[in-house]
Specification:
single chain, alpha/beta, Rossmann fold, eight-stranded mixed beta sheet, two-stranded antiparallel ribbon, 7 helices, 14 strands, Class_I_gatase-like, Lipoprotein, signal
Length: 311
Amino acid sequence: MRSGTSLLAALVVCLASGTALAQYSKSAGLNAPTVAATQEYMDEQGQRQRREVQVRAAPDKHGNAAGSQHDLAVDGAFDGQTVAVLHFYAMENFDFSLPKQALAEKGFSVYRWVGRAPSPEELEEKLKKACQLWIISSDQRHLNEKHLAVIKRFFDSGKGVYIWGDNEPYYADANAVAQKLLGTEMRGNLMGDQVVGLQKGAGKPGLLPRHLLTTGLEYIYEGITIATIQPNQTLTPLVYGSEGNLVAAFHDRGGKRAILDGGFTRLYVKWDTAGTGRYVKNAAAWLVNVERFGDTVVAERLRKDGAQPQQ
């Protein structure tokens, strides 16, 4: 095991060369990562030679690069970080165990309120220990204006927010939060239940290529019945569904990050279909916002490993 001093030195080097390097994998931002391989060839003298080349990583059964090394973040990168979840759509078959297990691979723990909202005071206190907040909406409002003010302060501080809704009417709190933070909402009910690939052009069905959120992803399951995000100038489209509707979009401006998503069924239905587990891990890693808070993330990692950051 590395000593605290050597770990500190290694992480300082990572920070000096770019904050994200300490947490992000070598595949970050690549939809189709490559790996080193040895290739044999004949030289000009007819002698058999070998050389190192880069080849596409082996795919899983859905066509995405296999292996957690091709996620956005390296395993355990966010040890000590907490994802807070307001889980209002609390059906028996949606216990959040699958997303929780995926997040744990990257070091995240999960703190959930299920089927109820805490007091605004409790929410604000718990969020002091969280790196991001996920809201999984239901068809009824649980959050009042005081809750929204707490979430807005959290968001304005640079902490990430993931806003999950689904087909009408399962976006009550999602729309309340989206309006407060992003000035938009989701609407409607479209049948999805398809796997989409990378976009072939702006506004076409599929995933946004070459972004940190879509690292290691060439295919993703869109969800069953899904709502449509209403685009505005603060959002960047992330996933267009098979019907051409905007399923998910993100905000990344002024040091603040959020994701708005109209297909929360991906979190518990057909989990093993294309890309869901990787996408969940990528989203959480991106919402940590290490590009802004890298020093804080590293300090937390050092604390758990028994080292103290230099003053």
